[in-house]
């Protein structure tokens, strides 16, 4: 049977209607998917912001806890001075004991009976003596770098295994950054002046690699003022590099001896140093005023590290610097 023009017109209309319906369904599905994705993204952003706020408050609490520990140690030192005893800082004190990873989920849960349903939060941290390291501030000031300070930094860079010329690079860039601008400087010189770093991590502005900074971190620091090295907390590499005529063996004897009996006054260090080594009070001491607070928070799948610099001024604990530490990216071989 042959199709009439009317039948053909009806089939064409049905095909058009079906195509229109499919297009509408596709558009509705696309719009619905977009709305679901945007809702999911908003939920993820809100969850991340909530986790960031929680982490910030918890790490702030850990910093306050560290400041409280330092304040109690300062009170103990003050009481010792009143009794006529010498106040010293050493690795056998409470502040030097690191905090092992502890679970905080119980404290974060709103209902203690449902503590297991709270977020998995773990906190760990430690306090380090910032004056156990060589202070780069000794390289600044004066028209030229004191020869002894230059040799100290050169010894430390060699001990750390950094590339040759690292000490010269740090000295040149650091003095350039803190030299200040004079009227004789050309306009182009201001753009070439390095930024003033506030901590060791910012030495990367000078062209130091991340590996070189990690190697130097246990040995050097950058504090607001020139400070002596605490012989009760410094590693042997710093002690050996600090004085002319010093060697690692003598520094190791001091490190071993202070574990059982810390130095109570600077003059006692002469018992471990070779003859002829001059120990000046502006280069070495047995107490400290600057400390580094390390805090790590593991909140569910997120890990946040924070490092703060605290200055102890009598019973006042001043936070001079606070920075988030970005963990290194692991690369597959």
TrEMBL record:
<dbReference type="InterPro" id="IPR005628">
    <property type="entry name" value="GspK"/>
</dbReference>
<dbReference type="InterPro" id="IPR049179">
    <property type="entry name" value="T2SSK_SAM-like_2nd"/>
</dbReference>
<protein>
    <recommendedName>
        <fullName>Type II secretion system protein K</fullName>
    </recommendedName>
</protein>
<feature type="domain" description="T2SS protein K second SAM-like">
    <location>
        <begin position="229"/>
        <end position="268"/>
    </location>
</feature>
<keyword id="KW-1003">Cell membrane</keyword>
<keyword id="KW-0813">Transport</keyword>
<dbReference type="InterPro" id="IPR038072">
    <property type="entry name" value="GspK_central_sf"/>
</dbReference>
<keyword id="KW-0997">Cell inner membrane</keyword>
<comment type="similarity">
    <text>Belongs to the GSP K family.</text>
</comment>
<keyword id="KW-0472">Membrane</keyword>
<dbReference type="Pfam" id="PF03934">
    <property type="entry name" value="T2SSK"/>
</dbReference>
């Amino acid at each position: 049977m042959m199709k009439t023009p009317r039948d053909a017109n009806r089939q064409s209309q049905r095909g058009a209607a079906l195509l229109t319906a499919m297009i509408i369904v596709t558009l509705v599905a696309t719009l619905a998917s977009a709305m679901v994705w945007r809702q999911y993204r908003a939920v993820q952003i809100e969850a991340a912001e909530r986790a960031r706020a929680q982490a910030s408050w918890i790490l702030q609490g850990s910093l306050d806890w560290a400041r409280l520990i330092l304040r109690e140690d300062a009170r103990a030192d003050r009481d010792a001075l009143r009794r006529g005893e010498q106040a010293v800082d050493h690795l056998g004190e409470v502040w030097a004991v690191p905090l092992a990873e502890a679970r905080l989920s119980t404290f974060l849960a709103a209902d203690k009976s449902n503590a297991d349903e709270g977020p998995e939060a773990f906190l760990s941290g430690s306090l380090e003596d910032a004056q156990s390291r060589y202070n780069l501030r000794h390289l600044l000031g004066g028209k030229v770098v004191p020869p002894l300070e230059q040799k100290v930094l050169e010894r430390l860079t060699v001990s750390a295994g950094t590339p040759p010329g690292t000490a010269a690079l740090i000295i040149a860039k650091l003095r350039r950054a803190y030299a200040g601008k004079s009227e004789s400087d050309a306009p182009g010189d201001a753009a070439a002046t390095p930024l003033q770093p506030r901590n060791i991590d910012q030495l990367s502005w000078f062209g130091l690699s991340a590996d070189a900074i990690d190697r130097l971190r246990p040995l050097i620091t950058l504090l607001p003022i020139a400070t002596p090295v605490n012989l009760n907390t410094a590693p042997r590499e710093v002690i050996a590099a600090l004085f002319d005529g010093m060697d690692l063996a003598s520094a190791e004897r001091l490190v071993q001896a202070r574990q059982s009996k810390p130095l109570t006054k600077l003059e006692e260090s002469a018992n471990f140093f070779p003859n002829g080594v001059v120990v000046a009070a502006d280069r070495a001491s047995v107490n400290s005023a600057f400390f580094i607070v390390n805090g790590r928070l593991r909140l569910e799948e997120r890990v946040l590290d924070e490092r703060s610099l605290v200055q102890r001024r009598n019973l006042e604990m001043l936070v001079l610097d606070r920075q988030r530490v970005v963990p290194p990216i692991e690369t597959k071989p």
